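Q: What structure does this chain adopt?
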Amino acid sequence: EFRDGFTPHLKDLLDDRTLLGESTTVVDPLRPLAYSTVADLAHWARDRWTLEDLSLIICAYSRILHDPTLYVNIHTMATKLLLNLVESIASKAPDGESNARIARDLIARLMDVFVRKMSTIKKLLPDIELAMNTDEGELPRLLFDNMGTNIGKLGMSSDSLHLVKDCRSLLKTLIVGLKTVVWGLQLIINHSAEAAEAARTDPATVAAPKPRISTEECRILIKLLKDGLPCFELYHALGSAADPKEERDVMEYFSHLFTTLEGQTLRDIFTDNFDVLVDAILKNSSLMILPEHI
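A:
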C-alpha cells in the first residue's frame, strides 16, 4: 500500500508550510484538496496512530473546523475525521493509567471543539435568516468571518439555500459526532472504574468512588444544551423547507446523547438549566422529543 510511505511523515503533513508552501496564490486554491487528502490518510491509518499522533491530528483539524476562510463542506469533512478517531482513542485507554488519562483528555477536547462549533452556528442564525430574507441575497460580513463562504455574495435563490443545507448537514454531523464522543468518554470512564476495582487487593477495604463525568466535562455538556437547542431553528425559521424525517432523526441523535449519561450527571445538567429546555420547546414544539427520551 503506497500510503504506508506517508505515515511516518504525519507531523510534516499537518504543517501548512510543508503541505502547501507559503505562496498566497497557491495556498488558497489548494487548501481544500490538501486537507481532504491528509484527512483520508489520517482516517485510513487511524488504528496505527499513537496518542501523540492523534493529538496532533485533533489539533490540526480542530483548527480547520473553525477556519472561517474555508467552505462549510470542508468543516463537515473535518468533523467526520475527528469523530472517526474516537474509537481509536478509546481503544488505547486500557494500556495503562497514563494512557487512560491522556485518552480522556483528548475525548474532552473533541467534545469541546464540537460544542464550540455549534455555538458559532447559534451565533450566526440571525445573519443566515437575514440573508434568506434579503432581496439582494448578500450575506452580512459576520457570516463570512465566522462560518466560511470564501465569496462576497451568495444568490438568494441558489447559493443562500445551498448554504443553509450545508449548515444543516454540518449540524447533523456535529450531533452524531458528539453522540460518538460521549460514548467514547463513557467507555473510558467505565474502564477506569473496572481497573480501580481490580486493583483492590483486599475486598474488605472501602471501594474508591466510582469515576464519573468531571466538572469540566459537565460544563461542556451544559454549554451543548444551551447552544445546541437553538441550532434546530435551521430546520424551521429560515424559510427553507427541511425534510421532517431528517429533523426528527437529528433531534433523536441529540436526545440519545444525553440518555447515555448517568443519573447524577443528568441532574447536574438539567437542574439549573430546565428553563433553557422549556423556552426552546415553546419556540419549537418538535423539541418535545428531548424530554420524552430522557
